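Why do we care about 3D structure at all? Because function follows from shape, and shape follows, mostly, from sequence. That is the central idea of this module. The next example makes it concrete: a single protein chain, its amino acid sequence, and then its structure expressed as tokens.
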Amino acid sequence: MVFSQRSIGIRRPKIVIIILSVALTTMLYALAKISIYSYSYSSSIIDSNVLDDYINLNKSTGLSNGQPSFCRNSDPTECRPRRRITVQEMISVISKLQSVNQNQRKIHFRDLTGLGNAARIYKDAFDIYYQISVYQPNVTVKLSIEKELLKLEKKLYPWVINGPMHSSAIDALFNSSGRGIVITTGSKYALVAKHTITMLRLIKSTLPIEIMYCGADDLGTNEFKMLSMLPNVRVVDMRSVLGLKRCEKGWENKPFAVLASRFNQVILMDADALFFQPPEVLFEIPRYKETGTLLFRDRTLPFGTYGRGQNLVNMLMDIAKPFKNQLLYSENRLMRHMTSDEIDSGVVVWNKSKAMPAILLTCLLNSAPFKNHIYSNSWGDKETYWLAHEALRIPFSVASDNGGAIGQLIHSDGADMVCGGLYHADDMDRPLWFNGGIGSRIPAKELGITQVQHWAIERTGANVKWEIATEPFCLHGKLDSPLGVNYSHIGKLTPNELNLARNMTELWVELFQL
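And the structure:
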């Protein structure tokens, strides 16, 4: 499903209206010019020639070759489409930037409404700055918004500006290119990452991979060397790119890893995410191409499970307050009290060109002090991706299936269920990927291997029954029932998929068995 704002059709005006519109535009132009000249800036970021320069640029057709300099490779999705920016829009955004920058009060970590307001001002300014930088390369016009935008970025999202590599988030964006996989890990799960990468190469994935960590306390020398020896893998300390005051070792590193990555289009995956198909297929999903973001749904657990659900609703309503009655992802289960958790962040696909402000806000939601509030009302990072996109109204897409289970088929009391990792199918109901690995994620004598043979999926969120008292979790369903029925469906892996699952298991034992 694709979630984006709808365009509004406009009827063709009559000739009289056209004449009146021209006259009105001329008057607005004069008023806007007076307004711009009357602004008082301490460093004169808008001079008397800016408006004329801007109007002339808006009349132009773009760069001489028809392509902005940033679109330097063969993938057209790495560039936002050009759009017209009005003078009034420029004036409004600069005024809002000045207002929020002059406010010295810090946003309280529970004030998600205030955070959402500030983040939307940054997003609007970022969009204009992007358009000017890419399609209208004029220094005078660019400087009219740059100073205030970067001042707000330093307040809200300081990591790129304070880092050693890029001068701003848009500079980092313009210096990104290509597609790749990003995985975060420390020493504890380095072997898990090695298993995942080895299996990716076995299924013929050729995407370059970046392993992100934060400091020597996160990833030790031996583990660094081990991962660096894997083919087409680059191991990166995020502090070599971002100005991080302190290093974390958990979920919070994940969106920062995307920000630090050199790739323009990123598949962010957990170290224990295992694929049945090359992850390259994710980039070809039409709804991802359209929106630039692909998220996956979590399993459907009763609203209130683990005390979660209502607090997440409240956070969503606060951070996306202006749009709370018209959410982009209107089909979500959470607002209908059908589940306690909505998004599974084991795999997130992002196009930075289309989603950079959402990436930055996701990073902030996973930073102290905001993460303390977020994590106490939801499970780790996983809902922050959705919250950021809804807050900024940046289009995104969500996979069609709810999280299922993959593993061993169990017959109990006349019922069938599949017990194992969190499972996701593609749009043709073929196994795509699952989360959780195969067994113990640290070397042990008893690995507790999961026999990956069957899968179970559910899509409607109705008539769903999970067993969650012990791990692995189990999803009840009906074996070989027709797809599309209003209950969970259980299927078996094909011979080729079973062979791949055996390879996963054999490698797991080889790496982890003591």
